[in-house]
Amino acid sequence: MTTMHSLSSDDFLDLASARRRPNRAQLAGILLLVVIALFALFGPWLVDIDPARQQLERFLEAPSLAHPLGFDQLGRSMLARLAHGTQLSLALALVSVLSAALPGTLLGLLAAWRGGWFERVLAAIADAVLALPGLLLVLLLAAFAPGGFWPLYVGISLALWVEYFRVVRAASRILLASPHVEAARLLGFGPVHIVRRHLLPELLPRLFTLMRFGFAGAVLAMSALGFVGVGLQPPTPELGVMMIEMLPYYGEAPWLVGAPVLLLFLTLLGLLLLSPERDA
Amino acid sequence: MRDHHMNQHATMPALAVDGLAVLHGERALVRDISFAIPAGGVLTLLGESGSGKSLLAQAIMGNLPPSLRCAGRVAIGGESTDAADQRSRHAGWGRRLALLPQEPWLALDPTMKVRAQVAETYELVSQPAAGRWTDGEQAQANARTRAGRALASLGLQDAAHKYPFMISGGMAQRVAFLATHAAGAPLMIIDEPTKGLDADRRGEVLALLQAAQARGMSLLCITHDIWLARALGGQLAVMRDGGLIEQGDAARVLAAPRRDYTRLLLAADPAGWPAGAGTGSESAAESAAEYAAESATGSAAAASAATVPAAEPRLIVTIDGIAKSFGRQVLFTGVDARIAAGEIVAVSGPSGSGKTTFGNIVLGLLKPDAGFVTRAAGLAPTAFQKIQQDPGAAFAPRISLRQSLRDLVKLHRLDWALLDDMLARMRLAPALLDRLPHQVSGGELQRIALARVLLMKPALIFADEPTSRLDPVTQQDVFALLTQHVRDSGCALLLVTHDEDIVRSVARRRIVLENSGAAAGAQPGG
């Protein structure tokens, strides 16, 4: 690359036009996510079957036109459960990712900006949290309110914020030492401007990448916690819980475990496609 | 092996290029290039940034970006290939032709020790008849020995077990030279070997190239350094807008250029600038007399500063006995200086003496370990501004220039018309502002940076190597604008540059920083 420096940059760039327009892969990602979001938002209302209603005589019934995903081992409509599960899982994952990303980013920025003892204390706390297995943290919290929704959410956020903190702090330290930030300071710009114009444009793509993986991690963590008996429990229609619940019936009715897996896969695929390849 | 190879083609030119063109779609970025370098000869390709010099080198190597294609013929050591068939030349990389890239310290692997990097080429690229069939370990040991010997031959034996970041820019250049040359390529393309190096290191590079030439290597040297072209001799070709406009014996072209553009290019060399050009009104003789750097070394002071000439206008900043060290490395101690409005003061000192650090302390970006920097009363907090070495790094990278400047105008409640006026005076097209910083050339960007700084009506500008990354024509242009506006606005200029010619021509006096002993860690690139 260094040998390319003196090429006149104009010759290769379709100025600006290439920057904003999403490419085909991104369009596919957007489409996928919009469909899944619509399913999560309106699915439960469209299907309009109580996900907890059991019709034991129809257990493991194969998919049909009226019931496209059939019935599960307790004769509950799989489509209804999937719709409710999607809504709950995605909302939970979104909330825990956001509640980890926001404080993590803010603390990372603050630490890089302030430096000194403030940064060292925060970094030490972050290292301590990192040393503590995330699941253990959730288990501890769950001891106070077993089966609840809040310990899960708080625990996952507490375990995840460290990633954002570390990434943001490391990147911000480099950026804050860069000539363009130095120039901005000399020109009289304050922290808000520097964060908005100089740091965030560089940080957001990385944060977005972290959030995508964090999103998947949150869904999987919830199912793992469900499996060990804390957090959400089987009657609740939630993707992770459903995967574990349906796993024993893989031989007879693979579509049952397949449906939540496929939905999670498509969600992640959509998120991955969304990323501009150059910034990933 | 090499000697054999070279004898075989002794009568053939080492490199012959015939009608070479580089095309982007229908547009020719480089066109109709023909020249021949005899075995053991040297051709220097001179031209400003963006003239297509590096593209030409990439085309000869067969390493153009995919969006470009080339036409014409390229003959290496007598073996002629269709220029468009770039792959056919890849097999010769390292063995028949080699490329020493720009800023080679960036091309070295930072995680690998110096000797290992050179040995790698001996082991993997060069295939000596005897070494070919030996087992891996023996070949490795053999390569290590040869690399050690090669390093020692260039005086680099102490660097063998260091990492690239631990050695100086000049040493890194020699290491990169060895690594690219280890496989015995008789033809070397060298891209801007002296870019960003100070006078001592330029001398080292020249010695290296001359030694290589003496051993029978043919060189194609791409540069905008006229001093280097003069020193290398051989043939000289001048490139402009993708074409060769003048070609011939180096001494002849430099002494009696036929084309106006060549004359312009030669005149832009700082060595040719008139002394005291930047000080305007004074006559050259007068400024030369005033210029002499006084070395009034204080009792405890290892560094010294010139005294202020009498009857200066308003004092802008007073510097009292400042000192700074990083860890155990003492940069300077006890520096005193006073800078008045309208002065142009150079900061000089050897590489690593803390010239940039000194400027940053004056700006208030860093705190000195001892001493004080006192600004004149009544100056705005933004009265001290800086022009950075790399203009490409001085703007928020993902924000359009217009947005950056709009933010500035809004912050200080300025008038955009003022900026338009400033840009016009810097000869910048307003449409440039709609681009991102990396989409604008270095010279243009540095002028935008200058406009941005002048918009703040500064009392002092600290220019840190403002043109070291620009070619001579652009450099002269930027300096002319810089000094003119400094003069017009009556602000002071504190200038750091490694180029003595520029100091001589522009500055009235200087502040000399001297290393006061203590482990001087070499910094690549000065």
Describe the structure.
The complex is a heterodimer of chains A (280) and B (526). Chain A has ten helices and no strands. Chain A is mainly alpha-helical. Chain A has a single domain (22-47, 70-274), classed as Orthogonal Bundle (MetI-like fold), CATH 1.10.3720. Chain B is 33% helix and 24% strand. Chain B has 16 helices and 19 strands. Chain B has helices spanning 2-8, 53-61, 114-124, 136-153, 169-181, 199-214, 226-232, 250-255, 260-267, 284-291, 355-363, 401-411, 416-425, 442-455, 472-489, 500-506, and strands at 13-24, 27-38, 42-46, 69-76, 79-82, 97-100, 187-191, 218-223, 235-240, 243-249, 304-305, 315-326, 329-340, 344-348, 370-375, 384-387, 460-464, 492-496, 509-512. Chain B has a six-stranded mixed sheet with strand order 6-7-8-3-9-10, with helices on both faces. The longest helix of chain B has 18 residues, at 136-153. Residues 1-9, 277-310 and 517-526 of chain B have low confidence and may be disordered. The A-B interface holds A 2-13, 15-16, 178-180, 182-189, 193, 197-198, 201-202 and B 24, 27, 29, 49-50, 53-55, 57-58, 65, 67, 99, 101-103, 106-107, 191-192, 363, 365, 381-382, 384-386, 388-390, 393-399, 403-404, 407-408, 411-412, 434-435, 438-441, 449, 452, 456.
